[in-house]
Design brief:
This protein is mainly β. The chain is 0% helix and 51% strand. A six-stranded mixed sheet has the order 2-10-9-4-5-6, with no helix packed on it.
Length: 113
């Protein structure tokens, strides 16, 4: 199993970013996927989940309405669209399978003016 995140960067408050996670080594559309983030101040925090066919999505309360998880099973890729970013969204964002037993290396998002 390999999960490779990309798309992080330094942005100003109020900006948007789209994170991508390319998956390989397993039957992608058979498994739910998750985004989890880690920041020094808050520790590890679950962000969002999506089921295998993409019909069902779930969000942590503080991200609901600002973040959108999606997936393209033809490309074995899961995305996290992040809008209206805030400084408190600064974190290392990880892609994982829904059972959280396989993780990517993370992509850093920094929101700062």
């Amino acid at each position: 199993v390999q999960l490779v995140e990309s798309g992080g960067g330094l942005v100003q408050p109020g900006s948007s970013l789209r994170l991508s996670c390319a998956a390989s080594g397993f039957t992608f559309d058979a498994f739910g996927m998750a985004w989890v983030r880690h920041s020094p101040g808050k520790g590890l925090e679950w962000v969002s989940n999506i089921n295998g066919d993409g019909r069902y999505t779930f969000y942590a309360g503080s991200m609901k309405g600002r973040f959108t998880i999606s997936r393209d099973n033809a490309k074995n890729t899961v995305y996290l669209q992040m809008n209206s970013l805030k400084p408190e969204d600064t974190a290392l964002y990880y892609c994982a399978n829904a059972d959280l037993d396989h993780w990517g290396q993370g992509t850093l998002v920094t929101v700062s003016s």
